[in-house]
C-alpha cells in the first residue's frame, strides 16, 4: 500500500522558517521524482518544487531562493526547507511522487504564516 505522510507544518511568523518532511512507503522511492505542491484557501493547487531521482531540483519563481527541496533515499523521505516565509506562503502543502505512469499524493500539512 502506497503512503505519503507529510509532517512539519504549523504556525510561524513572517520571516521565519519551517522544514516539511514527507515519508514514503509502498513504492520504490529512490526511482521516483518527488515534488511539493501547495493550495491556499480558494485557490488552485500549485507546484512549488521538484527533485528528480538523481537530485536535480527545480523551483517555482515565487519560492526560488527561499525554499530548498532535498531527499534522503535511505530514509525514503523528501524535505522542503522553507526560509524567509511570507504570509502568502500560507497553504496546505502536499508531496507528490511520480514513478512511471503512477502518481501518488500525501494528505497535506497546513502551513500558516502570520504575526
Task: Provide a brief overview of the structure.
The chain has no helices and 11 strands. It is mainly beta and 115 residues long. The strands form 2 sheets. Strands 2, 4, 5, 6, 9, 10 and 11 form a 7-stranded mixed beta sheet that branches.
Individual helix count: 0
Distance from N terminus to C terminus (CA atoms, Å) equals 40 Å
The average pLDDT is 97
**Fraction in beta strands:** over 45%
Give the C-alpha Rg: 13 Å
Return the string of H and E elements.
EEEEEEEEEEE
Largest sheet: 7 strands, mixed
Please estimate the helix content: under 10%
The strand count comes to: 11
Q: Which term fits the overall shape?
A: globular
- Based on secondary structure, the structural category is mainly beta
Poorly predicted runs of 5 or more residues: none
Amino acid at each position: 500500500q502506497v503512503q505519503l505522510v507529510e509532517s512539519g507544518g504549523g504556525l510561524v511568523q513572517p520571516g521565519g522558517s519551517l522544514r516539511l518532511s514527507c515519508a514514503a512507503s509502498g513504492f520504490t522511492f529512490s526511482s521516483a521524482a518527488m515534488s511539493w505542491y501547495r493550495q491556499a484557501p480558494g485557490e488552485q493547487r500549485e507546484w512549488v518544487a521538484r527533485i528528480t531521482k538523481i537530485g536535480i531540483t527545480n523551483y517555482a519563481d515565487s519560492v526560488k531562493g527561499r525554499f530548498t527541496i532535498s531527499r534522503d533515499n535511505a530514509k525514503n523521505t523528501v524535505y522542503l526547507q522553507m526560509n524567509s516565509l511570507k504570509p502568502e506562503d500560507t497553504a496546505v502543502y502536499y508531496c507528490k511522487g511520480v514513478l512511471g505512469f503512477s502518481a501518488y499524493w500525501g494528505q497535506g500539512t497546513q502551513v500558516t504564516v502570520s504575526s
